[in-house]
Amino acid sequence: MTGYGDTTVWLIILVLALGTYGLRWSFLGALGNRPLPVWAQRLLRYTAVGVLPAIVAPLVVWPAATHGQPDPARMIAAMVALAVGLVTRNVLAAIVSGMAALYLALYFIA
Question: C-alpha angle 100/101/106, rounded to 5°?
Fold first, then answer.
């Protein structure tokens, strides 16, 4: 189906596994028993803030449900979630309000 042979697929899996292990070891194995520098600790605090939008943004801008076309309901839900998150500084409130806004927008727009 993919056009790759069994050996190629297993080689890709092995290389990706070694890469993942190497990345994790670089922090846990090499630096695990030493304190991180202050500048690194300060930067790592923003990891979750950068990861969540990186996961959500493609689902809002190019949703698979609409075959990659921007959807007003998803844009409205994203704006509501952003506004609630900025006002309340509460991630859970932003997620729940975004879900509710998406449900309501899909119900009333469609």
Answer: 100
